[in-house]
Fold these 2 entries.
Entry 1:
Amino acid sequence: MADQLEVAVLGAGIMGAAMARNLCRTGHAVRIWNRTRAKAEPLAADGARIADSPADAVRGADIVLTMLYDGPAVLEVMTAAAPGLRPGTVWLQSTTVGLEGLAPPAELADTHGLVFFDSPVLGTRGPAEQGELVVMAAGPEDARETVTSVLEAVGDRTLWVGGDGASGAATRLKLVCNSWVLTLTHGAAEALALAKGLGVDPRGFLDAVAGGGLDCGYLRAKSAAILDDDYTPSFALSTAVKDAGLVVSAGEAEGLRLDVAEAGARRFARARAQGHGERDMAATYFASFDT
Ligand code: NAP
């Protein structure tokens, strides 16, 4: 293909592995690095080269895509990658880092002459596997064409928001979306917990809202996880603890009162303390019960 690029993917977690696989499928030459190498290795069957270090992964790459846990992890990994970076390399930073996590990577990009894009994504494991994420992107206009084929491989929509990568415009939009995602998750889990407590058939609740304005795909997905007792993570609860904290601190920085987000963050933390951190965030359900 005409725009086949050398793409280094740093992070082979739920999202990074799925995104890397779609990059392979669309003909890009992918090198992937993950701290726990075993998680990256299955991607060799898709044609990706498994890199030994972040520097090995990024050496000679046209584009570096980071999909790690949080801002400190991004900084740590890109600092380790530095010996392999060359000026002019494009960096798509898609990890959810929040506003406080954005400045250090943007500065690191500046130091190394990288072309920095703030490009968080909306969508969970399923959309990531299907290449149907929504990418919220901010970055220099004259480099947008370079990243188009990569963004189209991982997502079915890119929302360009104003400003360069350091402006925070894409991350601000991502925080607003996450506020909604996390609230929906708690709402579904609490409704089902209340149904259990009141002796109401949860399927009756789902039938009552079916097809109307109160119904939504997210309610269906999280309810299915709870009712099927299948908490295979699409979005791990421990990641939700991190993301809830980013929403709360963004609100605090603006002097906003986000009562629901604050209560939700505490609820996720309680579920994690109960031992549900590695399960899907639908496991916030358990925070309604003592054990
Ligand atoms: P995940 O499966 O937990 O993967 C996290 C990745 O970060 C793993 O590759 C992990 O490596 C790596 N990592 C963590 N700390 C590290 C460190 N200090 N140094 C090096 N690598 C480190 O998480 P995910 O669900 O893919 O999420 C990735 C990012 O996307 C997060 O920022 C999340 O908020 C965001 N996001 C997630 C979803 C979703 O639905 N899952 C949706 C949109 C956005 P190891 O394998 O070695 O632990």
Note: The radius of gyration is 20 Å.
Entry 2:
Amino acid sequence: MSLRARLTVWYTAVLAGVLMLFSAAVYGLLSYSLVAQIDANLDKTSADILAASQQDMRTVTPPRIQLTGNVYVQVWGLDADDEPTLITTNLATIETPFDATTLTSRERVYSTILLEGARLRVLTVPVGVAGVDQVAGYLQLASSLDVVDRARSAMAILLMSGSGIGILIAALVGYFAAKTALKPIDRVTNTAVQITRADDLSKRIPLLAPPQSEVGQLILAFNETLERLEALFDAQRRFLADVSHELRTPLTTIRGNVDLMRRMNALDASSLDAITTESDRMTRLVQDLLLLAQAETGRLPMVKECFELDTLLLEVFQQAKVLSHGQVQVKLGDEDQVLVEGDRDRMKQVLLNLVANAIQYTPEGGSITLSLRSEGGEAVLAVSDTGKGIADEDLPRIFDRFYRADPARQSQEGVGAGLGLSIAYWITRLHGGTIDVESKIGEGSTFTVRLPQAMEETRPLTL
Ligand code: ADP
């Protein structure tokens, strides 16, 4: 069932329920008050009759029917066997009790009876004789319920037809209201279908409703999703272009050198070296890409063990001194003892990537400082350099795949493919940590890795 139909059905059903309850209440109240009026009339007439006879059975006389406002009166005495015998009545045609069942009661009692096809309301009043505390007879008064019944059936017809028409109108209005309210959703659907057909993610759904309305919110959310998808597809396209580009450069070099040797008809040592270097570069690139793909999908195999980050930092420090070839000074800053949990080799890869960058982007004579501090349950590793720094506009993007702040250098020998920081970012993230950078052009950069510290009890014993 469509949403429109469901809304209409619900709306109509609720309205029908409310109308039925309301009708029942009105009908009940009307019946009650009409019968109460008749009862009051019977009561008043009986009181008048009894007052006129001074409550004495022997002098009770029913007034003429014209004087009682259509109240029929019977006076019943009791014979020697306590059987009721009709003494007098103002409705001569009927000589049986209006209601025989109540002629034994010791209390005043109201009843409703059917007499010769007519519904009557009957009041039975026990009457005594002055000075004797005993029932000597009964005064029975009856009034036709015809008016009440007619009023009741008229009201029932009115309520039923009124409710029926009301429900019908409500259903129609509800249907059209739902149709109008849901129209923008149809338009959103149509636009979405058009976008899918045209395969054009740059299209957006025009804001067909106020932004705060439900439909407005839907459109905004949908547009946001489209924006995300577009960005994702763009990134994928760029990624493919980048990978092809990165692979083409070494392949061209390899091809060129092979052609050269073929023409020379001899093996050339420098050509073979170039082929080896380029195939190594390609292997590295493919390995890095695989690692990134695994890390991003959470499938990177990782050892989970506790290790001393301070010892790892010392190892990297020694390696950094070798890598720097003495061109930059490598220093060790704070070195707190910190335990972390994770994959030691992968963390070493992160630190080496940061150190390799620092060495690469710091001119001769500069310095690099490695430090490790324990801060509020976190291990804070920092690699800072006095190198060329990173421009503000590049900072938000340097952790992106293939991003290089200085594209002119991209094909240079020894310069990475722009994957090192992405790998560092993902490995840190998989360790539950974060990586940040602060940098100033011309002054240097500081990369900070924060990792959750492992519990002290798990620290392995060192002899
Ligand atoms: P690459 O392989 O090009 O070094 P990375 O992902 O490691 O790739 O780094 C991305 C870019 O960030 C680099 O191309 C460089 O422009 C910039 N960068 C990284 N580290 C530093 C640093 N210590 N100083 C200046 N720029 C840096």
Note: The chain is about 50% helix and 20% strand.
